[in-house]
Amino acid sequence: MAWAYLDLATVRSGPDGEKLAAGRAENPLAELIAGGVLDNLTRAPYAAASLEFNTHRARLQFTLPHDAGQVAESRQYYFGPNGAGQAPPLLAAEGRILAISMYRQFSEMWLRAGDLYDDNVNDEIAKAESNLTTLFSGKDFGEDILGAFGPESQLIVARQSFADDQPRPAIQLPAFALAFRLNDPATMQPELRRTFQSLVGFLNIVGVMNGQPQLDLDMEKTETTQIVSASYLPPTDTDNPLPGGGAKINYNFSPTVAFSGDRFVLASTTGLARELIASRNQTAKPTTDTDSAAADAASSDTATINTAAQLNFAELLAILEANREQLIAQNMLSDGNSREEASAQIDALFTLLSRGRQAMLRLDQPAGALRLQPSDYSSHENREASVMPINWDTIDPAWAWSPYQPSAEQSGSAAARLIFFAALASGKTAAELVEAAGIEPAAAVEQLVGSASDGGTERSDPALRRPGSCRAGHGRSASTGARGGPMRCSAHRRRSSRR
User: Fold this and answer.
1) What is the dihedral of CA 463, 464, 469, 473, to 10 degrees?
2) Model-level pTM?
3) Which of the residues 89, 213, 227, 349 could staple to 232 if both were Cys, CB 3.0 to 4.6 A apart?
């Protein structure tokens, strides 16, 4: 465990504090991700951070004082009215690599560009708006198009599989999708469908000019859903000159839009769009006991979640392994390595990723604060049993009342924490703390705490322990209490209760 504190008022008044005081993002993507946090940094008096780690998880937490009533008008899009904007639950998808869920009022963010960016960025936004207005048949992109989307949105990235009768690209890319809620589905569904069809036609015209395969439109419709998709025509021998029969990179894509009620999905593949639009009320489920513990902790926290993200290392590793040869070739070209050196570097990366399991990030608003929590869950190996529910009927009393002794795997963290807190209680110096780290935890606690309470005479010398004292010399019977039952001294009870 570690803590840190930063005086932001001092930083803002310093020579390099102008950017922090301005609270301005350099581009729209940075604004989308961190605009609300940048706004808070312009007035928060301090920032606090804490780091917690054990054998199955590392969690870093940043906290800022936060008052929703003080949010700048240009940043209201980030938090919503009264700071109550809530990100939707993460959607489930087969082979999901990354999921990001957020609350952002995109129309307000676009229309407030003059207050958020410098002149250069605003000039580029003006050019983009002109082109987008043409694409959407003269409709204002900020008000008419973005204004039709609700503030709840998600990005999903998933590993895709290729059927035997499908062209298999030489470079396999993951599928990705954006999921939104429409404020007026009856009006916007036909508009978005027509725009998508026009875009496919434009891409075909450009594709012919550049020798690219053509897209073929298709439509699926049921009582509750509508899916409009475009897929590339199967390659011929002249279209597919790559070594080994690998198809062009285009065949990673089958652009698709899908509608169901007020749900709108724009996806790079038909399969992912179909899966997400069908899982309207299906959110991501924990896959392990550690995931369940994290989900339970999140559900018990009443803080408003503004942004949530989750990365699955196993699926990320799978998509990288599918492109191992391409990664090796790229390494050889960019770094000038031999094949053996490039293979060793790529395999080292794969080994590192295989050690992880999940990384999560959450930006929420507990009472009076803004909190950012990145965390990482390691592999299934060496996970602490503390995440499992306790069955009191199966606990061995002899084990429960014995002095705490960490296992070999725990000694580096649990023992260090035990000695650290004992040192705080005793006021020992750093040199004494280092010396204590080299002995057994129970003896270290006795030396640090016991010597502080009675001068280090009786409890530091085994020969001077009182009769009937426990093994650590704490002065009470290790086996019999005042009522004849099992009893422990206060130090042993504290250690036992921590289990």
Assistant:
1) -80
2) 0.71
3) 213
